[in-house]
Fold these 2 entries.
Entry 1:
Amino acid sequence: MSKMLPTKIDIPLKIRESLVAILTDRLADSLDLAAQAKQAHWNIKGPAFTSLHKLFDDVAASAQSYADLIAERIVQLGGTALGTIQHTVAASTLLAYPINAISQDDHVNLLSSALAVYSMNLRNTIEFATYLKDQVTADILIEVTRGSDKWLWMVEAHLVK
């Protein structure tokens, strides 16, 4: 982890360091989710192409905005937001997205699985932030989870035949 920068925020340094460390993992997950949704968006094939192409693009855009919220919180806490591709690959907890996925069923299954893990990790991080008594970080993550759960619901709706 990089050196924490000074700030007048009223959260002790050790707590800020812990929060930055776990938020850095969620930032990597967010950036990875955005890239996975774009992979699905670009490569989808099947009868529901038009609706899924748009849906996957919307998921990618939302994941990118979630990354921005999380990165800004990291910096507010005195950390450095690590958003490079190299760091994202090394730190993401999402499974790697197979580049040979083509069918809409493959992409729906893969993206819904990534969204499920993403939301689960967010919930665990909300619990951690709450335990550390940082309601602001918890609130930001609740907002992100609300969105990711919505996208999970919308993607999973395409699993029903």
Note: Helices lie at 13-43, 49-76, 85-91, 104-131, 135-156.
Entry 2:
Amino acid sequence: MRLLQPFSCGTVFELAPTGTSWNETVLYNFSQEVGAYPGASLTRGSGGVLYGTTNLGGPDGGGTVFQLTPPSVAGGAWTETILATAARNYADTFEFNGSVVVGRGGSL
């Protein structure tokens, strides 16, 4: 096991078989500013978009619902878009802890 990034807040990665072993590709590294510590599985949407949640971080501190859009060019960077945020305060803490479900018509 290797640390991908000092003080990492979570990573989305892909494992692809390469004969007798696996090749790891990092798709996205999270940070406190945009959402930290994804704890549930990702949901695939149309066009290869991935949806998920973080239970901390983001603009309001209490986590995010996010979308990761694949690069338009192979090997390019994935783009995170924050769809919703949760406020974090100690009187009434609210965090996103579950997976995102894609409904009919693409609603989340």
Note: The chain has a mean pLDDT of 84.
